[in-house]
Specification:
heterotrimer, B: mainly alpha, MetI-like fold, two-stranded antiparallel ribbon, 2 strands, C: three-stranded antiparallel beta sheet, 3 strands
């Protein structure tokens, strides 16, 4: 608990990166997200927790408009990134996603070499002027993904040949290579074993220095370990949002308490 | 056709067997079906199967084997000196069969009595003229060895037929009696019947293998005959296709192979880009409404019979191309002489293959996991970047497989090239010239008056075998690639 | 929340590459979006090209083929002179049959002259040229009628004769006055007469039932050629295919799907079936020629042989679709049957097979449709047109007597030089496609009606 109070002290020093106001999401006729208001801070790890089907992943996917790819999904309300509405007609989702990167539940390396996997983002966004610069970006990203030492001798090997934990760190490196400002992670450890999970969690903590990280997790321990802010979702509602220590030790809402103590979930 | 009656007889016996077997089982149980080991109808099936299946199996095998046996026996009757220099035993045998067939027809039409047919000899009668009268043309006068061989052939065939009828009938009755005798309330009829049915199922499944074996053997046999008459080096490595009736035909597959591959190439040039882009659009971009509308419509193109495409090539596309490239055409060039050309056939075949490529590619693109697309889109790639740089490389093996299947289709396609490509065998790179293909030549060598003793006819089997091997190779490769591809994402 | 001092320096050390407002598209994004639009346009163009080809095909077929369903007829009053047709006057059918079509020609010429005279048409044409307006089939047509109705001899009957194909083509716009300069079969004077006869209503274009029911005709008489007999040939072939391919295909599928152990033999059978489905159809024709005709000596050109060849060709299709429908029946059904003490065989035949039946039927219909349109193998076993001039009289005849099939008949017409046959070929395609569309619609309806999802 000491640890958490420490974290709490750093939390309120950060500016808001993403602000969601009265967000509602519909899948066809079903109302998946109900009137969610939340402010996500820069250089902070924010965890979304809640039982399965509570809408936490759906909400996460609204933050970089990944829901656009689903035909029946409609989003209402405002989501502001640095004060700009990301659902504004003038916003190109492609540009948005360069700023708001995403790491998925299941590691999904492309069927390319490790190098090409990481270089994919910088190439499409034109971040490198020449091969040397690209090499540098790839190395830097792989280092940030804490996987450089394991793959530096086999950058030409296919990314799909790595172990699950390595694949997920490769995917994080790949997301980092695009130089995003926000990193969304959708249950990034759910397909990994405990050791790989620990490595990824450590990595997330390091990433906090440069990015605003939002992580969806169904593991409360994980949320407690890596995040400074926690949002609890239930049945499409944002029930409670606050410093992680407070949510876990002194929740205000009885539903949060029931979930934390394992009565619902 | 007495064989048909034999089959009808067998069926009748089986029906009776069903009825009696069932009745006997019931009576052995004192009319109480609960006393029986199996349901009453199983006892019926047991008798029916026992009387029908072995008999019909023997009948079919006999019908298939008899010609072979007779052929062997009769050909051993022909002395070696009766086979002329330029000919082979196989060719003499085909004469023998022809004469025997002619005699059969003559007897049937009442021009000869059975006895006359059996006893006639070349010294006293003009056999050739007689055969001519019943519509069987024989190339030269019938020599005595051939006539006597033909008579032996007929004798054996008649004996064989009688023996077959007797054996089959005995077998059917024996099976009936045996099964009927075994029928008793404690007899495990269901188990026996089910084993029998399983054997029949296995037989049906092995028909696929039999067909393949039949294809290979039938073509291999005639191809061997062809290579005894014509040098295999000319067939595989010669450069000219020029059949004639003087006996010095040049029959090389290479110019035909060139035409085949050229036309297939043009067809793929049309079908692959159009089919692939259609598949990409349908699977990645189209709304479900567009998909539900466009996909079945495109697939109609695959359901149209090839004769329709052939006619379209011959009467519509060909003349249109002549209007464009021909004498007095719109372009003012005089590049095209007739409606048939490589381009005519290639374009139309390409249209036929569009749905083939598109639906196969559609399946394959859909098999690429959504996570892969999400990964790319999540990095800020546009849809087209995702398709080109992630989905396509991932789907590439499968798409290569699909294209190979399409190529095999194109190579084996017959009607479009028969009607649209022309009949001139040559090596030319000009797509506006008419050229010919392997399938076209197979059709032309095997239709009309065919003489299965001449290399000009037999070459069709060698061509057929080459075509079979070529397409089989492509198919096996393509199916292997596609299967491996699917396993990767399963 | 209001303290920015912490974040500003870190932002400075880490220059952000996607700086600037989201609301303004960068030059690079614009370029990429343009590429995206282009790519999308290629896709639309590909679909449009495919659909356009379909449209062109359909329009071509319909516009060129509908003409075949209309035919020009000339209605004449024919005096069936006893002196020419039945000299003995005793109406003995054998005597009447002795009069060949040459004997009927004068009667037709006379009827033509009478008609011209009655209408008051001035013409310099000789009687032979007058009769040239009619089909060469006219005499045979009349002879057939007289043999069927010998009691009409001596009477004057109104008779509808086929017009010659040139006259028919003239009315349909296929033959023009400037295109017949070198045509021996028709002259401008004859066309003048045709115009007058048409104006008088003697010569008319009407629906042509004979095209649908009739037999093929020789090269010189395209106006008399019909699809009917070859349609029967196709029908008998489909009968053979259905009778053989369905039971064998279902039996093979049941074995492979329900009973086959996983071993090399099963693997081989499966690989074989997959490959047979992709073997060129002409290879099956060669197989049929070598095995059924040369080896087993079944009659050439017989629908039975065609049916056997098409059976082998259709089997893989039926097996593949049957296996898919068997696979779609959930294992719980089998477990339920086994659970109440049924044997595996009973579970399959009593429960699985009935549930899979609609799917099997759909696959079979689609396989049959495929076989119906197949041409290449039929050419090799001699089923090309102009063989059967009459409809088969019995089942055995239908199976064993030489006949053609619809697609082979169309091919035969397409090979002939006279453009009048092309019209018939397109018309034949319309009939063939009507069959195919009906069968496929049936398959779709069956699937919709009985489709079950577990």
């Amino acid at each position: 608990m000491n640890d958490m109070t420490l974290m709490d002290s750093t939390v309120d020093t950060q500016p808001t990166k993403i602000a969601a106001k009265n967000v509602n999401v519909y899948y066809g006729d079903s109302h998946a997200i109900k009137d969610v208001n939340v402010e996500i801070e820069d250089k902070t790890v924010t965890a979304f927790i809640g039982p399965s089907g509570c809408g936490k992943s759906t909400f996460l996917r609204c933050l970089n408009r990944m829901n656009d790819t689903i035909d029946i999904c409609r989003v209402k309300g405002d989501i502001l990134l640095d004060g700009e509405d990301i659902y504004d007609k003038r916003v190109d989702p492609v540009q948005l996603r360069a700023k708001v990167g995403m790491v998925f539940q299941k590691p999904n390396p492309f069927p390319k070499s490790i190098y090409d996997n990481v270089a994919y983002g910088p190439r499409i966004h034109g971040l490198a002027k020449n091969k040397a610069e690209l090499d540098e970006i790839v190395e830097k990203s792989l280092r940030r993904g804490a996987i450089w030492d394991e793959v530096k001798d086999r950058l030409d090997a296919p990314g799909t040949g790595l172990s699950g934990g390595q694949q997920q760190r490769l995917c994080i490196a790949r997301a980092v290579a695009t130089e995003p400002e926000v990193l969304l992670m959708d249950e990034p450890c759910s397909a990994l074993d405990p050791i790989a999970t620990a490595q990824v969690e450590e990595l997330i903590d390091e990433l906090r220095a440069s990015y605003s990280v939002v992580i969806v997790t169904h593991s409360m321990q994980q949320a407690a370990r890596v995040s400074q802010k926690t949002a609890f979702f239930h049945l499409g509602n944002l029930v409670e949002f606050g410093p992680t220590g407070q949510i876990f030790t002194n929740p205000e809402d009885p539903r949060t308490e029931s979930y934390i103590t394992g009565r619902i979930g | 056709m007495p064989t048909i009656w034999l089959v009808v007889l067998l069926l009748a016996l089986a029906a009776a067997g069903f009825y009696w077997g069932r009745a006997r089982a019931l009576s052995s149980a004192g009319g109480d079906a609960r006393e029986l080991h199996s349901l009453p109808s199983y006892y019926g099936y047991h008798v029916a199967l026992a009387s029908f299946v072995p008999a019909i199996t023997v009948l079919v095998v006999w019908l298939l084997a008899q010609p072979l046996v007779i052929e062997n026996r009769v050909s051993s009757l022909i002395p070696a000196e009766a086979v002329p220099e330029s000919s082979t035993l196989g060719l003499v045998m085909s004469d023998v069969r022809r004469v025997a067939e002619g005699l059969d027809i003559a007897v049937e039409q009442g021009m000869l009595s059975r006895k006359e047919a059996r006893d006639m000899d070349t010294g006293t009668q003009d056999v050739r003229a007689l055969l001519g009268e019943v519509g069987v043309a024989v190339g030269e006068d019938v020599r005595p060895e051939i006539l006597s061989a033909a008579q032996a052939f007929r004798n054996l065939a008649a004996t064989g037929k009688t023996a077959m009828t007797v054996v089959v009938a005995l077998l059917a009755l024996g099976g009936f009696a045996w099964a009927y005798a075994r029928t008793h309330k404690d007899f495990r009829a269901r188990n026996v019947v089910e084993r029998g049915v399983l054997a029949l199922l296995i037989l049906a499944a092995s028909l696929a293998i039999l067909t393949t074996v039949g294809i290979v053997l039938s073509m291999l046999f005639e191809t061997r005959n062809f290579f005894t008459l014509h040098s295999w080096t000319d067939f595989f490595f010669g450069l000219t296709w020029a059949p004639n009736f003087r006996g010095d035909s040049e029959l090389s597959i290479l110019p035909l192979l060139w035409g085949t591959l050229y036309i297939s190439f043009i067809a793929l040039l049309v079908a692959v880009p159009v089919g692939l882009f259609a598949a990409i659009y349908l699977s990645e971009y189209a709304s479900s409404a567009v998909r539900a509308f466009a996909k079945p419509l495109l697939e109609i193109l695959a359901g149209i019979p090839t004769i329709v495409y052939g006619l379209f090539a011959l009467l519509t596309v060909g003349p249109a191309l002549v209007d464009l490239f021909g004498k007095g055409g719109l372009l003012g060039v005089e590049w095209m002489a007739g409606a048939t050309s490589v381009l005519t056939a290639g374009l139309v075949m390409g249209v036929m293959l569009i749905p083939f490529v598109s639906s196969l590619s559609d399946d394959i693109i859909n098999a690429v996991p959504q996570a892969m697309r999400d990964g790319s889109l999540g990095l800020g790639a546009t849809k087209s970047e995702t398709v080109r740089q992630v989905v396509m490389p991932a789907a590439l093996p499968g798409i290569v497989g699909a294209i190979l299947l399409a190529a095999s289709r194109a190579i084996g396609e017959t009607m479009i090239v028969v009607m649209g490509a022309g009949a001139i065998a040559k090596f030319s790179a000009n797509p506006l010239e008419s050229m010919t293909t392997i399938t076209t030549r197979i059709v032309s060598q095997l239709t009309g008056d065919t003489d299965f003793a001449s290399p000009e006819t037999l070459v069709a089997f060698a061509l057929g075998l080459s075509l079979f091997v070529l397409t089989l190779g492509l198919n096996v490769l393509a199916l292997y690639i596609v299967r491996k591809y699917r396993e990767q994402y399963d | 929340m209001t303290d920015f001092s912490h974040s500003t320096p870190s932002a400075a050390t880490e220059p952000r590459k996607h700086g600037g407002s989201l609301l303004a598209q960068t030059a690079r994004t614009r370029k990429r979006n343009a590429a995206e639009k282009r790519f999308r346009a290629y896709g639309i163009a590909a679909i449009a090209a495919g659909l356009a080809m379909l449209l062109v095909l359909v329009v071509t077929i319909v516009s060129k083929g509908t003409g075949a369903f209309q035919q020009t007829f000339v209605t004449l009053n024919v005096e069936l002179l006893e002196s020419k047709l039945d000299k003995n006057g005793n109406r003995d059918l054998d005597d009447i049959k002795k009069v060949t079509t040459f004997g009927y020609a004068p009667i037709i010429k006379g009827a033509m002259e009478a008609a011209v005279e009655e209408l008051g048409i001035e013409t310099d044409l000789k009687s032979k040229e007058l009769a040239g307006i009619l089909s060469k089939n006219a005499a045979a047509q009349l002879r057939e009628y007289v043999i069927a109705n010998p009691d009409q001899i001596g009477e004057t009957v109104e008779f509808r004769f086929l017009a010659s194909s040139r006259v028919d083509g003239y009315l349909k716009g296929r033959v023009h006055r400037d295109s017949i300069a070198n045509d021996k079969n028709i002259s401008p004077e004859q066309l003048d007469l045709v115009d007058e006869l048409a104006a008088a209503g003697v010569l008319k274009k009407t629906f042509n039932m004979d095209f649908i029911t009739g037999a093929d005709a020789s090269d010189a008489r395209p106006e008399a050629a019909g699809m009917g007999v070859s349609m029967l040939g196709s029908l008998f072939m489909m009968f053979v295919v259905l009778a053989l391919a369905l039971p064998i295909g279902v039996a093979a599928s049941i074995y492979l799907e329900e009973f086959a152990p996983q071993n090399w033999l099963t693997d081989m059978i499966e690989v074989n079936i997959a490959n047979l489905a992709a073997v060129p159809s002409i290879v099956f024709g060669i197989l049929g020629l070598a095995v059924f005709i040369n080896y087993m000596h079944l009659p050439t050109s017989a629908p039975l042989v065609g049916g056997l060849v098409l059976t082998l060709m259709t089997l893989p299709t039926i097996i593949i679709s049957t296996r898919a429908s068997l696979k779609a029946v959930p294992p719980s059904i089998r477990d339920a049957a086994l659970g109440v003490g049924a044997s595996k065989m009973q579970a399959v035949f009593h429960h699985v097979l009935p549930l899979a039946a609609p799917g099997i039927l759909t696959g079979t219909i689609i396989g049959l449709a495929q076989a119906l349109g197949e041409t290449a193998p039929l050419l090799l076993i001699g089923m090309v047109g102009f063989i059967a001039s009459n409809a088969p009289e019995s089942l055995a005849d239908g199976l064993l007597a030489p006949n053609s099939a619809m697609p082979a008949q169309i091919y035969e017409w397409a090979k002939r030089a006279d453009p009048a046959f092309y019209e018939r070929a397109w018309g034949g395609i319309i009939i063939l496609l009507i069959f195919l569309v009906t069968m496929n619609t049936l398959a779709v309806i069956l699937r919709r009606r009985f489709e079950r999802r577990w």
